[in-house]
Amino acid sequence: MAEPINPEPQAPAGDTAVASPRIPTVVVDEVHVVYRVHGAGSGGNGSPVAALKRMVTGAKSGAIREVHAVKGVSFTAYRGEAIGLLGSNGSGKSTLLRAIAGLLPASQGAVYTLGQPSLLGVNAALLNDLSGERNVALGCLAMGMTPAQVRQLTPEILEFSGINERGDFGSLPMRTYSSGMAARLRFSIAAAKKHDVLLIDEALATGDARFRRRSEQRVRELRSGAGTVFLVSHAIGTIRSTCERSIWLESGVIRADGPTDEVVAEYEKFMNRK
Fold this sequence. Notes:
Rossmann fold; four-stranded mixed sheet
């Protein structure tokens, strides 16, 4: 579970406190995340026949495999930063975001945060049987908005998402939406509020070029409001245009952390050699 950061540490008696221009919002301290996967053995134990037999008999597989997804990761994020997370598939990027959000416990180490991080993923839950408008209302209320704020912001959120551009989809159930429309609505709901820490997992990669431009501009606005944004994306152009700092994670280990142009150049060299 992420632990809170004290934003105003007290100076020792007799010392003069010096205000720092950089306020940390997330401190990741030697974090390890280990998954335990049941029934991941080799041979007959992992075969479809064996799996069916276990379903019929109620027996449990004795095979348990540990996956060390994040390995001793440490860094500090500050207010006003947008940080891109790069890495090939299975490198631990999404796992790290979930650990920062407090959704995955660290096996070792600790995560300290200023405020409650908000994780926005492509798979974020919306209720398929409710309309887009109703999902907007519920999402905003869940983020702590008042009913008056919800009424004021709902038209803006729907307009930002673009789901009504080809009809009145806002009044239709979510199950009638394409995956792209649903992802755009998720982002629009989350981005309607200023967050101390906003974690975005691939959401900006969804939608047409016009929506991506709106999304990138919204990320810049969130940063200017003293927030911190983490962005996981395979779209290098989005990382370059949105994030001034990037962290390259490979096989659960940080390979580079620094200015985006430098980190992206190292990452692309690595990917071209594969």
